[in-house]
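Run log // design_07
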């Protein structure tokens, strides 16, 4: 799993250099069978299980406001800045990027990684749905 994410990241970064473009992406993959699934996550996409009226987040988002992720950035020589707004704060790697792991984002690659978190999840008989989605979806839905 780690090798696949690393290879994709290298290819994206090589193409970004060649084309002179910036940017990056999250990645959330699931390999499922009848008993459960294996999840691999880089970035701020989220897997959520819905069981009746309850929801369970399965993975942790790789954002700079997470202390463990902030520490990873700092160990690589990066800095996390807090940008305060009127009602909320944003924590940003090098003052610009909320993510601490991504595919691409070549300008920040020395501070962030493309290493996925890998999780094994065994299905519960009461699980009804599993939703895998990016932050754009979850920021609107807010069910977890």
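design_07 sequence
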């Amino acid at each position: 799993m780690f090798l696949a994410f690393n290879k994709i990241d290298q290819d994206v970064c090589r193409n970004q250099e060649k084309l002179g473009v910036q940017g990056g992406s999250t990645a959330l993959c699931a390999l499922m069978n009848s008993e459960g699934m294996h999840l691999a996550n880089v970035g701020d996409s989220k897997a959520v299980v819905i069981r009746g009226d309850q929801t369970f987040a399965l993975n942790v988002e790789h954002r700079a406001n997470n202390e463990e992720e902030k520490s990873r950035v700092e160990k690589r020589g990066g800095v996390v800045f807090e940008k305060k707004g009127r009602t909320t704060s944003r924590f940003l790697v090098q003052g610009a990027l909320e993510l601490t792991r991504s595919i691409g984002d070549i300008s920040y690659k020395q501070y962030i990684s493309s290493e996925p978190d890998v999780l094994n999840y065994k299905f519960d008989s009461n699980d009804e749905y599993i939703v895998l989605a990016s932050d754009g979806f979850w920021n609107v839905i807010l069910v977890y």
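The longest helix spans residues 2-19.
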